[in-house]
Amino acid sequence: MSVFTRVTEAELTAWLSDYSLGQLLQLQGIASGIENTNYFVTTTNGRFVLTLFEKLTQHELPYYLNLMAHLARHGIPCPAPVANRSEQFLGVLNGKPASIVSRLSGKSLIQPSSTQCAAIGSMLGEMHLAGQSFGLSLANPRGAAWRAETAQQVGKFLSAPDAKLLASEIDFHRSHELSELPQGVIHADLFRDNVLFDENRVGGLIDFYFACNDALLYDVAITVNDWCMGGDGALDEARTRALLTAYHGVRPFTADEAELWPVALRVAALRFWISRLFDLHLPRPGEMIHAHDPEQFKRILQQHIASAGNAIWLE
Amino acid sequence: MSVFTRVTEAELTAWLSDYSLGQLLQLQGIASGIENTNYFVTTTNGRFVLTLFEKLTQHELPYYLNLMAHLARHGIPCPAPVANRSEQFLGVLNGKPASIVSRLSGKSLIQPSSTQCAAIGSMLGEMHLAGQSFGLSLANPRGAAWRAETAQQVGKFLSAPDAKLLASEIDFHRSHELSELPQGVIHADLFRDNVLFDENRVGGLIDFYFACNDALLYDVAITVNDWCMGGDGALDEARTRALLTAYHGVRPFTADEAELWPVALRVAALRFWISRLFDLHLPRPGEMIHAHDPEQFKRILQQHIASAGNAIWLE
Known about the structure:
The structure is a homodimer. Chain A is an alpha+beta fold.
């Protein structure tokens, strides 16, 4: 569970005196998430989420918080950070950097329909367009350098064929970069559990703490690899086409993006295979383990390699 | 009804292409308000209100729109203007300055309880505190100069006793200014129809187009004169004490404010007596008439004068 740092009602009431959020009515720890401490907070002004950042620092956080504020101001349904009386989104609570953001409605989906995949495709397109006017920039901390270095670290835990696959994929992407494609702010982790749905409507995009600047197509690939996946590591055709076509209706893909789509799918799968291998084999000391199965993304990667000349694209 | 300028779905869809709000799902004119054209707008991103400003200009609007954005960023439940791709809250639609803002939930109350009066008192205090860090300033366009000038214009329509009352009140307030009291951003029109309630919770403060910088106590008096009024022009004691005590719990009144409370009640009543006289006797040509009864605020004013030494104050 995700309450690493406990906050009492008295502590929160004192902290909230620097905000215009009214009187605290309810405080409830949230039992999910592995990086931060999260609480649902209800005040006389409404429903909010309090986050105490356990790893991210005062230096890294302004990018994420200002990005959420920027997107919310553009009407993207994402958590809007609340400013304190000093006009700051970031405070300190119980020794940790802390922020309080608006709470969105809706629930994560387990099995999205094609209609819901289209909805997330459109929303991702809207988010990419709205992000174009965001003033800050952050290079992807899990880009090519991180992939190569982390692959090196986890390679020794792998079987010979897996180690070979990993090494050859690292090589492949060295000569197949997405850096010439349209760039911008990407969510970089828009899995189903980071989207709240209200029936067929996207009620909220959450958890922007992997957001960065990178190829927009890479973000689409990350999203497709989760939302449109079949049981066997191969993409479901109907859902994939629905998501891509809806995205294309908001931000049309360029010819270069169409050509590099199979590469984007592969590198997006590779990134999560590597991070899951790392979390499994090299857990940080004292970490709450919540390791996802790396095999899943290895299979997805293998399927993408197998179907590379024949990737599912627009309707 | 308040659709002075018609907007078709096709026109709105074209206009929304400059926003990140998704696809238009529903457009519905709002049959209330007398100053602007308002529509409820539902898109795939959520629920919004579109306003075409019929009288306010591109020069006046930034104060109001930036104020709403400022308060929303501080967690005050008020309409949050949506920025377009050029980072502007204000656009032009069908030849009128236009803005699209978030739509809040709740309904206006007709007969607020003491609990609800306390809720609006707290919220007004929170709004005044949050407004302290707002960077723009606008002198009250309906301050002392406007009162004197407008009283002059409407005087000739009044009976002799009413004209005498009006003139003597204008004189009284010349020597009883609130300008030494704590100043800040005030809503200046926080009547029941400008507040959306969700049971006993304030769901939203709306219609900020009379907002300005003035004495905070004056805003409290305007609010009390509407929310806490009995049937006979005299304040209801329980509701008045509840509102004031709740406000005081958020932003404590100063001793000077306590002393000038009877004056604030009188000048707040006078302002609405004058504007209602003006709307009744000097309607602007072609205006949709929606004149409220000036007599109501004359009676309120007379009651305040009668009970001046004995005004209801904190619990």
